[in-house]
Design goal:
Radius of gyration: 21 Å
Oligomer: single chain
Number of strands: 18
Order of helices and strands: HEEEEEEEHEEEEEEEEHEHEE
Structural class: mainly beta
Distance between the termini: 13 Å
Strand content: 25-35%
Number of helices: 4
Shape: elongated
């Protein structure tokens, strides 16, 4: 299993094997053993100053892995924030899922403890809502996409007095981050892929609107397919999803038998972020190989869905065939 980001204070997985269509499980958070959980329970806020911050000696362009010098002398006791490159994108809003590349190191030693550049994918996480260390929540909301921002975060706005032993961070360490703001998503996000013909009359037809509203799903009055169906409705041009990836998506699910909706991120107002290994086999197999930025139709036969063990308190019955419309917004 690839190493997860040390940045996250609480993992953000929403849709679990036992949870599709179950409000209680939707709210549950998975907790991988290699993700830190020792951030302060209350998110402190404080004064923001412009420096000091260390010099970037290499990799000074947006998207390049930076090399950052040691901190120049004594760090500020306040949160230091400096915009190195001013982007022209939209402002990051509280509650958005922020997609960002970053490098983190310790002020006094310049020891790098984590970076997303080497993993090849920017990280995706909720911002401004207590899901990441407080310094990130306070510093990045309101910044524009395509910006590069450098942060010097005092212990009280990082991992607190306990630090993070896994990362080699002491409770007295000021943390330095360089963050490239790549993209952001919210409950009104849709993909913008190229429309693909839906010519099979025996399969559900999916709406192609990209206005952030839930697409329609029209289920035909025919027998459900016996095998998994996964096909493009809108085809994006992003990277292909691997079975080991985490994804951020919008989705809507209906029952084949009557077309009734049983679950929807559009209705809940919460995007879904999860590892493919955490969801039912039909989702994992249906999304693997599909491109980021795509809308996908997935028809899941019972043996790849919930079979004879449907989620409690849902309208899904035993041996139900499920129909999903999934917008793949990002991977991480």
């Amino acid at each position: 299993m690839r190493r997860r980001s040390l940045l996250l204070a609480v993992p953000a997985g929403l849709l679990t094997l036992a949870g599709c269509g179950d409000d209680k499980a939707d709210k549950a958070k998975s907790k991988p053993s290699d993700s830190p959980t020792n951030s302060p329970s209350a998110a402190p806020t404080g004064k923001i100053v412009s420096g000091p911050v260390p010099e970037i000696t290499k990799g000074t362009k947006f998207g390049q892995k930076p090399t950052v010098a040691k901190g120049p002398g004594k760090a500020s006791p306040d949160l230091a924030v400096k915009t190195l490159i001013e982007g022209k994108g939209k402002e990051v809003a509280k509650g958005d899922y922020l997609q960002a590349h970053y490098l983190g190191q310790i002020w006094a030693t310049a020891k790098v403890f984590d970076n997303s550049y080497d993993r090849g994918n920017p990280t995706v996480f909720p911002i401004g809502v207590g899901q990441v260390i407080p310094g990130w929540d306070q510093a990045l909301v309101g910044k524009k996409l395509d910006s590069r921002v450098e942060l010097a975060i005092p212990p009280k706005m990082g991992y607190g007095e306990e630090g993070n032993k896994q990362a080699g961070i002491k409770g007295s360490d000021t943390l330095v981050f360089v963050v490239d703001l790549v993209n952001s998503f919210n409950a009104k996000s849709s993909v913008k892929g190229q429309e693909v013909a839906q010519s099979n009359k025996d399969l559900p037809k999916i709406g192609t609107n990209t206005d952030g509203k839930a697409p329609s799903i029209d289920v035909p009055k025919t027998d459900a397919p016996k095998k998994l169906v996964s096909s493009y409705v809108l085809e994006g041009d992003g990277d292909k999803i691997k079975e080991t990836d985490s994804v951020l998506c919008q989705y809507k699910g209906v029952l084949w038998v009557d077309g009734k909706e049983f679950d929807s991120s559009y209705k809940s107002g919460r995007l879904a972020q999860f590892q493919l290994a955490q969801v039912v086999k039909g989702w994992a197999q249906g999304l693997t190989g599909k491109k980021v930025g795509s809308r996908v139709l997935i028809v899941i036969p019972p043996e790849l869905g919930y079979g004879d063990q449907p989620p409690q308190n849902s309208s899904i019955k035993k041996d139900s065939t499920l129909v999903f419309c999934v917008d793949i917004l990002a991977k991480a």
